[in-house]
Amino acid sequence: MLQTLEGVQNGPRLSVTTPLEEVEAAAAATDVLVLEFDAFRDGRGFSLAAVLRERGYAGRLIAAGKVLPDQARYLRRSGFDAVELAPGADTAAWARMDQAFSGSYQPAVDPAPTIWQRRRAASNDRDLQALADRLNRETEGKAASDILKAALDPALGLRIGTISSFGAESAALLHIVAETDPNVPVVFLETGQHFLQTLSYRTQLTKALGLTDVRLVTPDANEKATLDARDDLWKTDADACCDLRKVRPLARATVGFNALITGRKRYQAATRAALKPFEVLDGVLRINPLADWDADAVEAWLEAHDLPRHPLVEQGYRSIGCWPCTRAVEDDEEARAGRWSGMDKVECGIHLGKRQVAA
Which of 32, 120, 121, 332 has the smallest number of Cβ neighbours within 10 A? Predict the structure, then answer.
């Protein structure tokens, strides 16, 4: 547990803005080091503590300055031993927030289980994998609607939700979901950086299909204030931005599900070439009814059922994510070539197994 200390503590004091090499030099000469936060939104103090611990510093680390009780757990998990408080500060609030969470998103200096480890422990991966293998055999060659109906069989007892970006091809999957059971929850990751056209399309499509349980999931306000206060993290670290705005929110929003429906397709990217209708990722059954569809099949379905189109499609956007990391594509490019263009990145992370969220 993070110790709370009243009053100014003895020992060298360095601002969290101090370069790492200077912090390391100071740490090498002392058993107690105080790192002072100039603003509660500044995440550099957490990184400095974590790096010092990774490199073997065994001394006492104390956080000081502008830190909040909400950050108690983050401080401890980054490697801090204590926090320096002004006289009369609410120590009970610090103790309460330090113990407020039973899981975490990444391994750190404490033994707290990650949310992925907790989820895998709560389910039986072997049983889920056996179920996925059986359903893949039983639905081989069957239509997407039949694949979905097999997954929604009450006898399986699955707690199922749907993940949708309300993007270029989303109407096809959501139409099949709505035709099968319009009450299946649909999780939409409201990253705060979607195209306005996507938000309008979400409203239009939800109404047109009669979806009854569309859930808007946003990034954690405290995490965002710490990691991306200026909304420009995508410029320097697209992976961290996706973690903050997609991976972490999805983890929180889907804890109650043990099966998730997605609209992924093999043709979309090389990373999806071996996609099966049923798979197990992070202790959750993933259901991909459209795995073997191509762009022509999607277009035929949209046309046959007169479904609304995303307004950006006619402008050349064939895969649509957040506006900073999405561009229109040429006719001879893959559908997802416009996502994170120019970066060594093809997935946001929500569909990758054994995910860990970067600090």
Answer: 332
